[in-house]
From TrEMBL:
Name of the protein in question: Arginine biosynthesis bifunctional protein ArgJ
Residues at which substrate binds: T143, K165, T176, E255, N376, T381
InterPro entries the UniProt entry points to: Arg_biosynth_ArgJ, ArgJ-like_dom_sf, ArgJ_beta_C
Metabolic or biological pathway: Amino-acid biosynthesis; L-arginine biosynthesis; N(2)-acetyl-L-ornithine from L-glutamate: step 1/4; Amino-acid biosynthesis; L-arginine biosynthesis; L-ornithine and N-acetyl-L-glutamate from L-glutamate and N(2)-acetyl-L-ornithine (cyclic): step 1/1
Length: 381
């Protein structure tokens, strides 16, 4: 079933010939009204021109009206030409929509170091038909993903719809991840921006697939006010819920993955330490490999916790897997065959209690398989 966008938003996509596969690769997301927005992007020093331009637009504080995205080409590490091509993509999208270029955010994802074929963008943009549905946009922004990622929620009549892509090169600060959330709620921009930083830290920045951060990732939310005002706190809770669903969907669709891993840490000295510990476990190559093999090797979890920087006493830590206690300050007797069978589920939950304080946090990852190596060994060849 097609996912309808919030009031005032339209989207569309086309096959511009940027992806060698010939699949949809150029997309527009448009608001009929000026939208306040909040934004987070990669901290990678090799950031793409689209990220530099996005930061400048964000600093201006001016509203957005549209986002143009190309997939299949990161337009990164392409010198001064890359910056000119990114500006040109914004100008072409603005011309197509009757907007000013500074009302259009750009995003690119794909292979690094290949010049963006702007002529294909120019030919493709007029072919995009806009409609009030998220699905064509969600399909067009994919690269190595196996499925589109869309989530939605409603708060007292106002709608939130989130669209994301991401499968590999995922270890946020942020990752090869693009996330676009839109709502018809009327919100104060400063309150949205302040809240968005925390939401991103607790959701998108807690995803890890392979420990590699990207040059192009971003997460943005646009609110056009077409519905009207809603209570801020329930809205922000729903917004975080949509972001979390997208984050988990990215982890579940990790390159070559067969299962989603959720690591939940409680009892940490602080929430930040809990998140750090959870992400260290989710990113451990040894534990990810054990997860793939359905091996309840809890020692790898404990070792990852120990190098996370979170404070704890190993004699007090408790670790359970799929609800099965494995460790409590020392070895616990457990049925290894039963634990192994439990790890065969599509979602595997690791619960850690550090017994140091009130801090809690989650991280989202996946198992490591031979298919991950195959995909990335052949990515550009």
């Amino acid at each position: 079933m097609a996912v309808r966008l919030p009031r005032g938003f339209r989207a569309g996509a086309t096959r511009a010939g940027i992806k060698p596969s010939g699949r949809p690769d150029l997309a527009l997301l448009v608001s009929g009204l000026p939208a306040v927005w909040a934004y987070a992007a990669t901290k990678n020093l090799a950031a793409a021109p689209s990220i530099h331009r996005g930061r400048a637009l964000y600093a201006s504080g001016k509203p957005l009206r549209a986002v143009v995205v190309n997939a299949g080409n990161a337009n990164c590490a392409t010198g001064e030409r890359g910056f000119a091509d990114d500006r040109r993509m914004a100008e072409l999208a603005a011309l197509r929509l009757g907007l000013a270029p500074e009302e259009v955010l750009t995003a690119s994802t794909g292979v690094i170091g290949v010049p963006l074929p702007v002529e294909k963008v120019e030919k493709g943009l007029p072919q995009i038909d806009l409609a009030p549905f998220a699905d064509p946009f969600a399909e067009a922004i994919l690269t190595t993903d196996t499925r589109p990622k869309v989530a939605e929620a409603e708060v007292e009549g106002a709608r939130i719809v989130g669209i994301a892509k991401g499968s590999g090169m995922i270890h946020p600060d942020m990752a090869t991840m693009l996330a676009f959330l839109v709502t018809d709620a009327s919100l104060p921009q400063e309150a949205l921006r302040e809240a968005w930083r925390g939401i991103v830290e607790r959701t998108f920045n807690q995803v890890t697939v392979d420990g590699d951060t990207s040059t192009n990732d971003l997460a943005v939310v646009l609110a056009n006010g077409a519905y009207g005002e809603v209570p801020l706190e329930p809205f922000l809770e729903a917004l975080e819920g949509v972001a979390r669903k997208l984050a988990k969907a990215i982890a579940r669709d990790g390159e070559g993955a067969t299962k989603l891993m959720v690591v939940r840490v409680v009892g940490a000295a602080t929430a930040e330490e809990a998140r750090r510990a959870a992400k260290q476990v989710a990113g451990s190559l040894l534990w990810k490999s054990a997860l793939y093999g359905n091996d309840p090797n809890w020692g790898r979890i404990l070792a990852a916790l120990g190098r996370s920087g979170a404070r704890f006493d190993p004699l007090r830590v408790r670790i359970s897997l799929q609800g099965i206690p494995l460790y409590a300050g020392g070895v616990l007797p457990f049925d290894r065959e039963a634990a192994s069978r439990a790890m065969g589920a599509e979602e595997v939950v690791v619960l850690v209690d550090l017994q140091e304080g009130p801090g809690e946090g989650e991280a989202y990852g996946c198992d490591l398989t031979e298919e991950y190596v195959r995909i990335n060994a052949l990515y550009t060849t």
